[in-house]
Design goal:
Blueprint lengths: L7 E4 L3 H12 L4 E5 L12 E2 L1 H9 L3 H7 L5 E5 L7 E5 L17 E2 L2 H13 L6 E2 L1 E8 L4 E7 L12 E5 L1 E4 L6 H6 L4 E4 L5 E9 L5 E7 L3 E7 L5 E7 L5 H6 L1 H12 L6 E2 L4 E5 L2 E4 L4 E2 L2 E3 L5 E2 L7 H20 L6 H31 L27 H9 L40 E3 L6 E2 L10 E7 L6 H8 L6 E8 L13 E5 L3 H5 L6 E6 L10 H8 L13 H5 L3 H19 L3 H4 L2 H23 L7 H16 L6 H11 L4 H14 L2 H17 L6 H17 L2 H8 L2 H21 L4 H4 L11 H29 L2 H19 L21 H9 L1 H8 L8 H11 L65 H24 L5 H9 L7 H10 L5 H4 L2 H8 L4 H6 L25 H6 L1 H28 L41 H5 L7 H11 L8 H4 L2 H10 L3 H12 L4
Parallel strand pairs: 1-2, 1-11, 2-7, 4-14, 11-21, 25-26, 26-27
Antiparallel strand pairs: 3-6, 4-5, 8-9, 9-10, 12-19, 13-16, 13-17, 13-18, 14-15, 15-16, 19-22, 20-21, 23-24, 23-27, 25-28
Helix pairs in contact: 1-4, 1-8, 8-9, 13-15, 15-18, 17-18, 17-19, 17-22, 18-20, 19-20, 19-22, 21-23, 21-24, 22-26, 23-26, 24-26, 24-27, 26-27, 26-31, 29-30, 31-32, 31-33, 32-35
C-alpha cells in the first residue's frame, strides 16, 4: 500500500498489476495492491521479455536490472533418438539484430517471471508501496462514486487462517488477478474462446546436471513425444516442456517419479544426465479466450484476467504489461479531473484489436508446432517482438501528416472511376506498416542528443520520455515558427506536459526557448530521421505510454483539461463560418468541440463562467436562426462535427441552466424541444428554480412579442417561424411559464384569429391550396408554400392544446373559490374564441374543410373532444356550471359528424398535404386508427375498439382524467419521435415500451434500447396488466397481431426440398437461425405496411378520383401530363405492344431508384461497404453511395445497424 490514502485497488501482484501500480503512482494516484497468495510465485512461466516491454521498463527505470539478470535466446539443438547424444541439427529461433539509434532493444531476452516480479516489487517499494500478500478479494459492489469491497487476510505463515473481513471503498478497481481471478467473474465479463485439449503440455523447471547451458535442447517431436529443455538465468536450472500425443499429462504432472522416468527415457541419456530438484510442475491446457471489453463502470481488467492464450510466441507477460501501461496514465488523468471519463473507453478501443491479433498469431504458432508440424512453427520472432504494435485506429489519435497527404490529391480526378480505393484493415501488430511513422505508432528513440543547457551532456529520447508526461517535441529549422507554440506550452502544468525543443546541429539556442523544459541539439540527426522531419518545423506529441500522437495543439490543451489555457470561445456566426475554407471549418469545429469537452469536465466553480454562458447563448442564437430558416428553405443534414457540438452544447446548457435567461431559453427550445424534449424541460425547470423572475420576464416580454408576431400582415414565412417559436417554447416550459400564455386572453384570441382568419387570408393571397382547387388531383405535387402553411396550422393547434391542458390542469387541482376563478377564466377564453368571426373567404366556393377554413375550436373539438374534457375537469365543482351545457352544445355543433356517431376514417382535410412526413400533428388521425389516438376520441378516452356500447368508457376522477389527457398527448408525441427513427415498429409496441417501468416514458431510452437490442419483445409486454397501465383498456387488436400466425404454421416443412437461392444448402440450419427468420419477418412486415398505407390512401381519395384510370402515384411523374402511366404497366397509355428492345422503351426515361432500394442493392453487393471505420469511409464505393443517396456516413452506417438488428 502507498503511504497516501489509496484511491485505486489493484487485485493481483503479478507483472500486470505491478506495472499498473507503478504507472498510477508516477502519475500522482495512490494505490493499494493485494495478492491472494502468501508468497511470490516460483518458476520461469512467462520468461520471454520482448523489446517493447524493455522500453516500457525503461520508463520506470528498471530495464537495466532486467538486462543484467536476463540471458539471450540460445541456439536450439535437436538430438537423434534413441541414443539421444548425437545432435542432428542446430538453428536460431530468434536471430540477433544489432540495436539502432531509434530502436535500442531489438532482441528477445529470457528472465524468469519470478525474477521480473521481484525487480518490479523492489522498484515499487522505492515509491513507498508494497504488495500485500495473503489478502483476498471476497466481494465488491460498484456505486456511482466508487467500489465497495470486502477483503480477507490469510495467515502469513501459509496456514490459510482467515481473519476479520475488511470493508473498504475505492474510487477504482483493477483486476490483474490472472485467468482464474475473481474480479472478472464477479463483474460478469464474458470470457469467450476455446480450450485446445489436443495440445496439452507438462511444463515446469528442473535442475539438470550434465546438460550444456549454451543450447536449448530438444528430443523427439510433437507427433509422439517432444521433450524440450531451455537453460535459464539460474545455473543448472532448465525450463522443460513435455508434449505429444503419447504423453500421459495427468500422470506426469502429479507423479514426480513418473516424470523423472519420462525425462530419462525420452532423452536417451540415462547415465550422462542427472535430473535433480523439480521446483514446480504444471499440467498446461491451452485456452484461447478474451473478454469483450476491458471496462465495466469503475472496474478494469488487465493481463491474463482479460485474455489467455498459448505460450507459443512468448507474448503473455508482455501483453499484460502493455495493457497496464496503456491504462495507467488514462485512469490518472480522469481521476484527477484533467480528462473526460470518455478517455477511459479508449483503453478497450485500443487494446482489444491488439489482443485479438495476438491470440490469432499465438494460436497459429501452436497449431504449426504441435499439430500441423510445419517449418513455419519456428519462425516465431518474426512479428512477435511487438515493436510494430500500434493504435492508428484510436479515436484519440490524430495524424495531421496523414490527413495532409490524403487532402493533397483530394481535388484531383485521376479517371479511375471503376477502381475502388482499397480499405486497409486494422494492422495491430504493424506487419505491413514498417518504415512509415504514423500517429498511434511506437515512439522511436534517438541517441546523440546534446543538452544545450549543459553543453557536453548527451542523452537519448527514451531518457526524456516519462510515464507521467505528455512530451511535446518541437523540431525547428525556421526560428520564426515556434514562439507562439512555446508561449502556449508555457502555461501548461509542468507535471503533465514537458516541452522539448530539438534543434539541428549548429543552430544555437534561440531566445524564444526560455521557459521550455529542455533544449537539445540533434548532433547526428537521429531524432530528425526517426520522426521523418522534412519540414521547416514540426510538433510531435508523445503520450506517457510512449505512443506518437500528432494531435493539434488545441486538442492537446483540451486533453490536459486546464481551463486557464484555453477558454471556451463564442460560437462563430453562420456568415463567419461560410467565409472559411473546408479545412479551416473542420479545424474550428474540432477546436470548439474540444473546448466544450474541456469546459464540461471542469468543476462548477470554474465551469459556470460568463464565457460558458456566452457560448451557449451565441450557439443557441445562431442555430435557432438556421433552424427557423430551414423551416422555409429545406437545409441539408448537419455534419458529424456539428452533431458533436450540438450534443455537447446541450450538456453544457444542462450544467449551467441556473444562469440562463429568457432569450437563451427560447433559442434553446427552438433547437432542442423537438428532439430532446425531456432534457430541455429539465433545463427550463432548473432555470426557473434559480430565477423566479423568469415568469415575470415571459409575461412582460415574450407573451406580448408572440401576440404581435401572430399577425398575417407579416407574411407566411414570418408566421411560420413565429408559430414554431411559440410551440417549441411551450413544449419546453414548466406549468408556471405555460400559465403566462394560457392566462393571457389577448394572446389566445390572437392565436385563434391567426389560425382561422389570418392563415385563411394568406392562403387566399397565394391563390388557395391545390388540394382545394383540384380535389381530383390530390396526389399531384403541391406548391412549395402549402406544406409551410399547413405546418403553421399544426403548430398553432399544438400550442392551443398545451394551453388547454394547462387551463384544465389548473381546474382539476383547484377547489372552492379557486375552482370558481379558474373555471371563470377558462369559460371566458373559450366563449371568446367561439365569438371570433369565422372565416368566410371560401364559403361560397368550398364547404367547411378540416384544418383549412374552419375555426380553431372546430378543428380542436373534432380532434380532442374539448367538451368532454372540460366536463370531466369540472366534476370537482360543488354545482354543475350552467355554462357547460351551453358550451357543449356549441362545441358539438362545430363537429362535422353528428354527436355520438363515429366515422371509420376521419377526414384529414388539408393535412393530406403532410401525409408521409414526420411533421403531422400528434393526436390527429390522418391515416386511420393504426394504434395512435384517434381524431374522434376524447383525450381522456382509451383507444376504442368496436362500435356502439363497446365504445363506452366508465368515467374516472377529474384529476386522474386530466393526468391521462396530458399523458396521451405526451405519449403521442413520443411515439411519433420513436417511429421517425424506427418506422418498421408497430405504434402499439412503441406505446407499450414507453409505458414500461424500465423506460419511464422517455423516448430517448426507448431508442437506445431498440438500437442495442435490449428492448423487451412484444410477447414479453403482452399482458393484461401492462396493456391496462398503458392505455387503460386491453388492446384487442394488438393481441391478435402480435404473433402474426397463419393456417400453415402447424404444418411440417420438408426441409430437404428447400433451396437457398439456386444452390441446395443446409436449410435446417437456416431455419434454426432466429435472426435470419426475424429479418425475413421484418422485411415482410415492412412491405405489408407499405401496401397497407397505399390502400388507406386510396380509400381516402377514391371519391375524388375519376373512374377508369389507375394512377401510378409517383412523385417524379406529373399526374396531369399527357400519357398517364397505368400502375404496374410500365408503358404509356395508348402505346402499342412494342418489344422490350423497341425504340420507345429505349427513349423512355427509367424511373429513378429510391434511397431505400439503392441501399439494399449496395448491401447485397458488398455488406462491408457499410462498415464503421475510417478506411471504409474514405473508400470510393462509400463516396459513390453517399453521392447516390445524399446521406452522411452516420446515416448509412445506422441504416445497416437497423437492417441487421434482431426484430422481436
Amino acid at each position: 500500500m502507498s503511504s497516501a490514502i489509496p484511491h485505486v485497488l489493484i487485485v493481483g501482484g503479478g507483472p500486470s498489476g505491478l506495472v499498473c501500480a507503478l504507472s498510477l503512482i508516477h502519475n500522482g494516484v495512490s494505490v493499494r495492491i493485494i495478492e491472494k497468495s502468501t508468497e511470490p510465485r516460483l518458476g520461469q512461466r512467462g520468461a520471454g521479455i520482448m523489446p517493447r516491454t524493455l522500453e516500457v521498463l525503461t520508463s520506470f527505470g528498471c530495464a537495466d536490472e532486467v538486462l543484467k539478470r536476463a540471458i539471450p535466446p540460445p541456439l536450439t539443438r535437436q538430438y537423434e533418438l534413441p541414443n539421444g547424444t548425437q545432435p542432428i541439427g542446430e538453428f536460431d529461433m530468434s536471430p540477433r539484430v544489432d540495436p539502432t539509434p531509434s530502436c535500442p532493444y531489438n532482441n528477445i531476452v529470457f528472465l524468469g517471471q519470478n525474477y521480473v516480479e521481484g525487480i518490479l516489487r523492489d522498484t515499487l517499494a522505492k515509491l513507498q508501496c508494497k504488495v500485500e500478500n495473503g489478502t483476498e478479494l471476497v466481494s465488491f459492489e460498484q456505486t456511482e462514486s466508487g467500489v465497495n469491497v470486502t477483503l480477507l487476510r490469510h495467515g502469513t505463515d501459509g496456514s490459510d487462517v482467515k481473519g476479520t473481513p475488511e470493508h473498504c471503498t475505492y474510487d477504482w478497481m483493477i483486476g490483474a488477478d490472472g485467468a482464474r481471478g475473481v474480479v472478472r467473474k464477479m463483474s460478469g465479463f464474458s470470457f469467450l474462446g476455446e480450450t485446445r485439449t489436443i495440445e496439452n503440455h507438462v511444463v515446469g523447471d528442473v535442475y539438470v546436471e550434465g546438460l550444456s547451458p549454451k543450447y536449448w535442447h530438444m528430443w523427439g517431436d510433437a507427433s509422439t513425444l517432444l521433450a524440450s529443455f531451455r537453460p535459464t538465468e539460474t545455473p543448472g536450472l532448465f525450463s522443460f516442456v513435455i508434449a505429444g500425443h503419447k504423453v500421459n499429462h495427468n500422470l506426469l504432472s502429479s507423479d514426480e517419479g513418473a516424470l523423472r522416468k519420462c525425462f530419462a527415457e525420452n532423452t536417451g541419456s540415462k547415465t550422462s544426465l542427472k535430473f535433480k530438484e523439480i521446483p514446480w510442475v504444471n499440467h498446461y491446457i491451452p485456452n484461447i479466450r478474451m473478454v469483450e471489453t476491458f471496462q465495466r463502470g469503475r472496474v478494469f481488467l488487465a493481463g491474463d484476467s482479460a485474455h489467455v492464450h498459448s505460450f507459443s510466441g512468448g507474448q503473455g507477460i508482455n501483453t499484460g504489461i502493455q495493457d497496464s501501461f496503456n491504462l495507467g496514465w488514462k485512469l490518472a488523468l480522469v481521476h484527477r479531473g484533467l480528462a473526460s471519463p470518455a478517455l477511459l473507453r479508449t483503453y478497450s478501443e485500443e487494446r482489444i484489436p491488439v489482443i485479438r491479433e495476438m491470440l490469432d498469431r499465438t494460436t497459429r504458432i501452436l497449431k504449426c508446432t504441435f499439430t500441423e508440424r510445419t517449418s513455419e512453427s519456428w519462425n516465431k520472432a518474426n512479428g512477435l517482438l511487438q515493436l510494430g504494435i500500434n493504435y492508428r485506429w484510436s479515436s484519440v489519435v490524430l495524424d495531421e501528416r496523414k490527413r495532409a497527404e490524403d487532402a493533397e490529391f483530394s481535388d484531383f480526378d485521376f479517371g479511375d472511376e471503376d477502381e475502388e480505393e482499397p480499405c486497409d484493415a486494422i494492422d495491430a501488430y504493424g506487419g505491413s506498416t514498417e518504415g512509415i511513422l504514423r500517429a498511434g505508432d511506437r515512439a522511436p528513440d534517438a541517441t546523440a542528443l546534446v543538452d544545450l543547457s549543459k553543453h557536453t551532456t548527451t542523452c537519448r529520447l527514451f531518457n526524456i520520455f516519462t510515464p507521467r508526461h505528455h512530451t511535446v517535441l518541437i523540431f525547428s529549422r525556421a526560428l520564426d515558427q515556434c514562439p507562439a507554440i512555446i508561449r502556449t506550452l508555457k502555461g501548461l502544468p509542468p507535471d503533465l506536459v514537458q516541452s522539448v525543443v530539438v534543434l539541428s546541429r549548429g543552430q544555437g539556442i534561440p531566445a524564444y526557448c526560455q521557459g521550455v523544459t529542455s533544449v537539445f541539439e540533434d548532433w547526428e540527426g537521429h531524432a530528425h530521421d526517426a520522426y521523418a522531419i522534412k519540414d521547416e518545423w514540426a510538433v510531435v506529441v508523445i503520450r506517457p505510454d510512449g505512443v506518437v500522437d500528432n494531435k493539434t495543439l488545441d486538442r492537446l490543451l483540451t486533453t490536459m483539461g486546464n481551463e486557464t489555457i484555453y477558454r471556451l470561445p463564442t460560437y462563430p456566426s453562420t456568415t463567419a463560418r461560410k467565409s472559411l475554407s473546408p479545412t479551416q471549418l473542420v479545424t474550428i469545429n474540432q477546436t470548439i468541440s474540444s473546448a466544450l469537452l474541456q469546459t464540461i469536465a471542469l468543476p462548477p466553480s470554474k465551469r459556470d463562467s460568463p464565457a460558458a454562458r456566452a457560448f451557449v447563448a451565441s450557439y443557441a442564437k445562431d442555430t435557432a436562426l438556421q433552424i427557423l430558416q430551414g423551416l422555409i428553405w429545406q437545409s441539408g443534414s448537419i455534419s458529424k462535427d456539428d452533431r458533436v457540438i450540438r450534443k455537447r452544447t446541450l450538456i453544457l446548457a444542462e450544467k449551467i441552466a441556473p444562469v440562463l435567461d429568457t432569450q437563451i431559453l427560447l433559442d434553446l427550445a427552438i433547437v432542442y424541444a423537438h428532439t430532446n424534449e425531456s432534457r430541455i424541460k429539465t433545463i427550463f425547470q432548473e432555470a426557473l428554480r434559480s430565477n423566479q423572475a423568469l415568469v415575470e420576464s415571459v409575461k412582460a416580454d415574450l407573451v406580448p412579442a408572440a401576440t404581435h408576431l401572430f399577425n398575417p400582415s407579416q407574411g407566411l414565412y414570418a408566421v411560420r417561424k413565429a408559430t414554431h417559436c411559440v410551440v417549441s417554447f411551450l413544449r419546453a416550459s414548466p406549468p408556471e411559464i405555460v400559465r403566462c400564455f394560457s392566462h393571457d386572453q389577448v394572446f389566445v384570441l390572437a392565436l385563434g384569429t391567426l389560425y382561422d382568419q389570418g392563415l385563411g387570408s394568406i392562403a387566399q393571397s397565394y391563390g388557395g391550396l391545390s388540394i382545394i382547387r383540384n380535389p381530383s388531383s390530390a396526389s399531384s405535387t403541391v406548391d412549395e408554400w402549402e406544406p409551410i402553411w399547413v405546418q403553421a396550422k399544426v403548430d398553432l393547434i399544438d400550442a392551443f392544446h398545451i394551453i388547454i391542458i394547462s387551463l384544465l390542469n389548473d381546474i382539476s387541482t383547484a377547489s372552492g373559490r379557486a375552482l370558481a376563478a379558474e373555471s371563470e377564466r377558462t369559460f371566458s377564453i373559450i366563449f371568446a374564441l367561439l365569438e371570433l368571426p369565422s372565416s368566410s373567404f371560401t364559403a361560397s366556393l368550398t364547404p367547411p374543410t378540416p384544418f383549412f377554413n374552419r375555426s380553431l375550436l372546430s378543428d380542436y373539438q373534432e380532434s380532442y373532444s374539448l367538451s368532454k374534457t372540460l366536463s370531466i375537469a369540472l366534476r370537482n365543482a360543488a354545482e354543475k356550471d350552467a355554462r357547460l351545457d351551453l358550451l357543449e352544445s356549441a362545441l358539438q355543433s362545430l363537429e362535422s359528424s353528428p354527436p355520438n356517431q363515429l366515422k371509420k376514417h376521419k377526414d384529414a382535410g388539408v393535412l393530406k398535404i403532410l401525409i408521409g412526413s414526420s411533421g403531422i400533428a400528434p393526436g390527429i388521425d390522418h391515416r386511420g386508427d393504426r394504434g395512435r389516438v384517434s381524431s374522434t376520441q376524447s383525450l381522456m378516452d382509451p383507444i376504442r375498439i368496436g362500435k356502439g356500447k363497446d365504445n363506452a368508457v366508465q368515467p374516472t376522477g377529474a384529476a386522474s382524467s386530466l393526468a391521462a389527457a396530458s399523458s396521451v398527448f405526451d405519449i403521442d408525441i413520443k411515439i411519433t419521435q420513436v417511429l421517425d427513427i424506427f418506422p418498421d415498429h408497430a405504434p402499439n409496441y412503441v406505446r407499450a415500451l414507453l409505458g414500461h417501468a424500465t423506460f419511464g416514458g422517455d423516448p430517448e431510452k426507448v431508442v437506445m434500447a431498440l438500437l442495442d437490442g435490449s428492448a423487451p419483445s412484444p410477447q414479453e409486454l403482452e399482458s393484461k396488466a401492462t396493456a391496462a397501465s398503458i392505455s387503460g383498456t386491453v388492446d384487442v387488436a394488438a393481441q391478435f397481431v402480435n404473433e402474426r400466425r397463419n393456417v400453415f404454421d402447424d404444418e411440417m416443412m420438408d426441409v430437404s426440398k428447400l433451396r437457398i437461392g439456386k444452390a441446395k444448402g443446409d436449410a435446417s440450419n437456416v431455419l434454426r437461425d432466429k435472426s435470419f427468420i426475424e429479418e425475413m419477418k421484418a422485411d415482410i412486415l415492412r412491405r405489408a405496411e407499405t401496401v397497407s398505407d397505399d390502400e388507406e390512401e386510396e380509400d381516402a381519395f377514391t371519391s375524388s378520383r375519376p373512374t377508369g384510370i389507375d394512377y401510378a402515384f409517383d412523385e417524379d411523374e406529373d399526374a396531369g401530363a399527357s400519357g398517364i402511366k397505368v400502375a404496374g404497366d410500365g408503358e404509356e397509355s395508348g402505346s402499342s405492344d412494342a418489344g422490350d428492345d423497341g425504340p420507345d422503351d429505349a427513349e423512355r426515361p427509367s424511373k429513378p431508384l429510391d434511397t431505400e432500394t439503392i441501399l439494399e442493392l449496395a448491401y447485397i453487393k458488398d455488406p462491408k461497404m457499410f462498415d464503421r471505420d475510417g478506411q471504409t469511409r474514405r473508400s470510393k464505393a462509400r463516396a459513390d453511395l453517399k453521392a447516390q443517396t445524399e446521406w452522411t456516413d452516420e446515416q448509412i452506417e445506422g441504416w445497416r445497424i437497423m437492417l441487421e438488428r434482431n426484430v422481436s
